[in-house]
Predict the structure.
Amino acid sequence: MNNKKSITAEFKEFVLRGNVVDLAVGVIIGGAFQGIVSSLVKDVISPLIGVITGGVDFSNQFLLLYKVPEGTVIHTLADAQAQGPVFAYGAFITSVINFLIMAVVIFLIIKAINVLRGTKQAGGSAAAEDRKCPFCYQPVDPKATRCPHCTSQLNSKNQTS
């Protein structure tokens, strides 16, 4: 019985740890955000790309992996799959294209959010502004007077970029 209490206490400590709660909130918000981005891609961007490319649709491209019975008419992927195994390379190409579109859209949305928040992307992040300690060569904040890694005193004589 005592062992159950310790496991329960450990589990409670684990679940209530800040990182786990933050992760749970992130997953929930990410799921909701995925719905928004999916709708944006499916309902706004994909139709525009369809108009620009003349309605090219790879989703019905396939290769039959069986001999078609005589007199059978196959026009769509669903018709082909109803008859037997099919190599549906068009569906894969469509999935890759949708992934790339979604990745670009998410990148642009995050970039816009960062601009609104006043932060910069990786090119102008704080890590890029850090200098290196001349003793241990670890990154050090530009305003630091002592290295947080090796505790060396930093001054204008021994600072490097």
In short: Residues 24 and 30 are 10 Å apart (CA to CA). Residues 18-52 form the longest helix (35 residues).
